[in-house]
Request: fold
Amino acid sequence: MATIYYEKDVDRAILEGKTIAVIGYGSQGHAHAQNLRESGFTVVIANRPGSKNARLAEEHGFKVHTAAEAAEQADIIMMLLPDQHQAAIYRQDILPHLKEGKTLMFSHGFNIHFGQITPPDQVDVSMIAPKGPGHLVRSEFEKGAGVACLVAIHNNYSGNAKKIALAYGLGIGGARAGIIETTFREETETDLFGEQTVLCGGVSELVRSAFEIMLDNGYQPEIAYFEVLHELKLIVDLFYQGGLSYMNYSVSDTAEYGGHTRGPRVVGEASREAMREILEEIQNGSFAREWLLECLVNTPVLRKMRERDHEHPVETVGRKLRKMMPFVNPKEV
Reply:
């Protein structure tokens, strides 16, 4: 069973008198910085000068520094940049100021686990990873609640690495919900696997394929959109509230029976074998190498896939239908 820490298990005093640098004011950064400040901790912000996120940080009452300036001031440095940009910023701006006894933190283990960042032995290296996007980390904190987090320790030079990480997790609200102990390896590999096979890859491909098959068989695209994309939120909300059993309890008997008997024909042994292969690619580092090489050549494959998806019929009909439903708070990119 997992070890879970709550507020009663955390000593916030270990961060008193320390300065925390939040490197990056994006999705996670804006939430961490504001929550930490409102928890009574000293926070400095680093972001690219003149950028949209730098202006947002200033609007939120922070003075924006360069990464090097923030790292120099800080006792604890939290890296909240996109995975593909962390290593270069680390080598150029963070490492020269990573003095003995400081703490280097991450919210995802990618760069440590795959060897893109190799910190010196004389610093603590830890992770606090909220299990939700930054806007949720912020909104739940403002309600007096929190988003569950993961904690992992890569290097415990000071002997207090876990205590410091847990206090940071408390500062962003995670200890209100629970902070689950893991490792950099487990967090990285499971996060990538979940994204690729279910959350981003599997679900999107399932929606596209089902939509295309309905159109091939003469059904109206508007009807197909509602059946295979729009209503997915209703099902996911049931999963979120009570798991698979609650979803089956909540839908019709016809839907439940059809799901039980037909679902395994869609996601059968061939799908499971593909998932095993994907997990192996994550574990042996081949996905990480592929992604880092893609970034080195300015992401041509990713940009092409984004263009393809933007023009797919499920997207074009969706943009039209969402205008009819302001209650869904439509977003366009």
